Each structure stands twice: as structure tokens, then as C-alpha cells.
Amino acid sequence: MVFSVVRVFRGYRTTNTETTKHTNHTKRGMTPVGELKMKSKAFTFFISIALLSIFTASAVAQKGTGKDLQDAVKRVDGASEVMNEIMRISDKSIPRDLLAKAKAVVVFPGVIKGAFIIGGQGGKGVAVRRIGRGWSAPAFLNMAGGSVGFQIGGSKTDYIMLVMNDKGMKGLVEDKFELGGEGSVAAGPIGRTAAASTNATFDAEILTYSRSKGLFAGVSLKGVSINSDKDFNRNIYEKNLKQIIGEPALGATAAPATLRRFGQTVATYAR
């Protein structure tokens, strides 16, 4: 009898303990399995929120970059067309032997000049730097400055610049570089070769050309300032001007495929 009572008592304690555990879970409103499911749902919820934040930020960034990329493609294509059109007429083009020696090539397509006796001029351009036998990713620049003289209102002019030495390159990659000064810039020669050019031409850091209304010629651009299109370069590459065409320059493959056309165009004529 005593043995039976002990067995019953032990059974009661075991049953009571399990009942208590069940009751505690019930008080919390769930079973252990339910509690695990709840934790799993909470974890999934927080992960979903985190991923949504990442995707949203990425979408916003891509939207901005997409617009900048479209504008960059237009600028690169415009610069490429200017080079092709100028080089198409060999006896009135930039001498290829000069292009073969150039450290960098810069083109500002369609710069608009105001219709004033003292007129402002401004434009957006593209530059590539020589890397061995190839050319760098394109960097984006702005042009600003003044010119004195009578002008036909609203005319567009294409400007081409050949950077001929390391000193010229050093100036180009600065945040702001003003063309001018003794021997720093000169009107570039035109024709099949530069053999007939003067010493002043060969000593210049930068040779400059312009094309307006179909007329192409060397022209001095003293007083014009060149500066980095900082926001544009940062949005396209997440780099500044020196990191793109400084030393060492950024390789062409670092640029989106749609932006490599200008470097490829320059390479065609600068062999």
C-alpha cells in the first residue's frame, strides 16, 4: 500500500510539473513550438526591413547614376563626332604626328558663346590620357572664361586641346587650370604633318584648336579656365579628376562600355 501511495505521489509530482510548464507557456500565450515560430517571424521581419532599405537606397542611387550616365554618353558621343569630322579631311586636320605625341586629348563640343562685345563662354568637355599604347577612361571637365571681340550671337564652337607634356598634364588635373602665360598654350598647326611648325608650337604645353561654322583652325585660348566637373566624375566613377586622369590614370575598362567611344576614337588617329 505504501509503495502504491509513493508511486501515485511521484506520478502526481511529475504530472503537476509538466502541467505547470504547460501552464506557464499557456500564460505566455504559446507553446515552445509557437514561441520558436514567433522568433523566426520576427527575425524574418527585421531581415526584410533591412533588405528593403538596401534595395531602396540602391534604386535611388541607380536612378541618379542612370541620368548622369545618359548625359555622359551624350557628351562622349559629341566629342567623338567632333574628332571624326575634323580628322576626316586630312590636309585640314590635326597633324597625326602631334596626336601621336600628345599626353592627353580634350574636346569641348558645342561651346556656346554669348552675343556681346565682351562675351562669356562655357561648355562641358571630355578628356582622355594616354596609358602606354591605349587611353584612359574619360574624365569630365568644364570650361569657362571671357573673350573680347565682336561675336555673332549664340554661335556654337567646338574646342580641341592637345596636352603635349607633363607640365601641361599637371595643370590639367588641378581643380582649376587657366590657359595662358608664356609658352603654356599656343594655336595648334593644321595639315598632314607638323613639320612646318614653329618652335613656339613645339614648346607649348597645350595646343588648341577651334571649329565654328565649319571653319577649323588653331586658336589661342588664353584666359580660358578648365576645371573638373566634380559632381559628374564622382557620380560616374566615385573618383575625382586626379584619380581618373592623374598618375596613374584609370584604365578604359573602368568606364562603362558606353563611355569608351571617345578613347577608341582618339586611338584611331593617335597611332
Written account of the structure:
With 271 residues, the chain is an alpha+beta fold. The protein has a domain at 85-269. It is 45% helix and 24% strand. Strands 1, 2, 3, 4, 5, 6, 7, 8, 9 and 10 form a 10-stranded mixed sheet that branches. Helix 2 (32-87) packs parallel to helix 8 (261-269). The longest helix is centred in the N-terminal third of the chain and has 56 residues, at 32-87.
Distance between the amino and carboxyl termini: 112 Å
Q: How confident is the prediction overall: mean pLDDT?
A: 77
Q: Order of helices and strands, N to C? A: HHHEEEEEHEEHEEEHHH
Task: State the helical fraction.
Answer: 40-55%
The percent range for strand residues is 15-25%
Specify the number of helices. Answer: 8
Outline type: elongated
* Main pleated sheet: 10 strands, mixed
Class inferred from helices and paired strands:
alpha+beta
Low-confidence segments, given as residue ranges, are 1-28, 55-64, 115-119, 148-152
Please provide the count of β strands.
10
Oligomer: single chain
What Rg is obtained from the alpha carbons, in whole angstroms? 34 Å
